[in-house]
Amino acid sequence: MAKPETKTDAFVRKLLEQAKIQFDEQGSDIKEVNDALKTASKSQKGNAGFPEFVAQVKDFLLVIEDKADLDKHCKYAQNKGDEIVGGGVSYALSLDKSSPATQNYAVNGAVWYAEHLVENTHFKKIFAFGVSGDEKHHKITPYFIDERKNLFALAEIDNFIDFNEQNIEECYLRNVLKEPTNNEKELKEILKDAAELHEALRNYGNLKDQDKPMIVSGILLALSEIKHKNFKIEDLNGDTVKTDGEKIYNAIRDNLKRANVQPEVKRDKILSQFSLIKDSAKLNLIDKQLAKTPLKYYTEFLHERLFNSFIATHSAEDYLGRFYGEFMSYSGGDGQTLGIVLTPKHITELFCDLLDLQPTDNVLDPCCGTGGFLIAAMHKMLQLAQDETQKSNIRKNQLHGFELQPDMFTIATTNMILRGDGKSNLLNDDFLLQSPEDLGLKALTVGMMNPPYSQAKKSGDTKLSEISFTEHLLNSLCVGGKCAVIVPQSTMTGGNSKAQKQIKEQILQNHTLEGVITLNPATFYGVGVMPCIAIFTAHEPHPANKICKFINFEDDGYKVAPHIGLIETPQAKSKKQHLLDVWFDKVEEQTKFCVKTTIEATDEWLHSFYYFNDEIPTEEDFDKTICDYLTFEFSMIMQGREYLFADNQPFRQPETGVGSSQNNQGDGNE
Known about the structure:
alpha/beta, six-stranded mixed beta sheet
């Protein structure tokens, strides 16, 4: 007869393999660990005892104990002096370490093994995991045990992705030591630098908000000419004949030529965006406080704070987009008025993963803004590329974008030039005016889009709606092309417009909806948009029996931090991996996270519309319900309303005051 945990073992084994963690079962290939387990019986009698799984990752040890029954997940100690709180017992959050608890509960057993191994091996950093349930209904709770057998309770997880070789040190840093990671430090530095530069641009340059990103972009292009010996920062000396602005402007012109931006009319159009650098008298006169021109000060600042890290690191971070967003935030900028909502890095990277981006794909972002999606796509495709020839083709031929706003188009172009190419297929034009047939000639296989928001203010403006942008993008892709859009949730309901609801019908007639993912309401922090991601397949009519996925990913592991904005928490990586595992059918999930269903055009294409509760109540749920009821009954009795609980007694209102019985006579039909 198979042991009860057989299914749970298989589930854990699958998660470890997906996380690429090497493991041993019922013992360990590490001799000292295996020897120590020969006296680790959970009965605590000194006999042999072996956890379900043991793994070594770097200098950490992972110990996993599992149980088939969710009710056997964890048992806490009940300490003397516990108070009655809300009808239930308030337990101290200390684990019960008695023999029955370590034998019968997953978490307690895992921690028992971990403490024994800390004491009897050289391993002094151990993660213990209690797992209960099966693939669809489960709990995974990690604890960390140090050399002094101190216990650190960590948040529940969905998988072991944070504990593989690539992530475990960062996990330890964030979850146990509570120290910021390099990414968090980098984000804080970026925002700090942007704020400082914003002040300098305003105080010394008297610049308009839309001009500030242009100054930053232009100087970064000029700095790229240093390695070609066409530009030197020390040559910026405040000369009134050949000004600092002219020197920077000429370096920008040379860099655009070097990047082979074609045709010439396009290059001249981009260059004209930087004319302020040479034409502004204030920027080119020596400032008494600075003892140099503002342009030299900005150039030195950007070279020291941004340029070296920007060029040296092959990151998917849209640094210029960060600066642009920060500059606009001070003014209330025209960004939101124009419906411009720049996409965070973790969302652009998520698009690449959800669409399973490959190095052979041809990518289009029809509303590319500062280039965030294209940067993420380039970064992902270059990582997957087989050789330099393929990398060169990705940069030159496989990244396409449209941007209507001239300033953001210039920033996007600058972004791509600084990253090695990709700029030749960016156009400063209105995507909605492009012919899908003409775009179809480019054999575009992937579409990524964050369209302008809330532009359809009147019924006649349907063509400006997010759903209209989505349909136009789908029509522009090749047959079988994949498309992901991040839009307000109202887009997926059809809003109040009959025309927008008709577009939903047209989309299903010509294309296939794969699913919709509801996102964290704070994704676009400060903008007030409730976003979701919709994923489609182009030019394949939606079958009536097609099963779509609707996922609630509001709990994505990101939170709002004061003075910073949206930041990544320690749970973000594992939550993202769980989302991808569910999306690609690697694991099953309860309907509170993912509903799989057929759809109609008239439905609201959101998780909340299709959700039903399929979670089996636990004994704890039952106990809580009984406790809540008893608390309510006790409260009513203390208020003199024991009549509510008398057997076979009709409800009796108080005899005086508003709502008394004489004012509420029945109709005789009770």
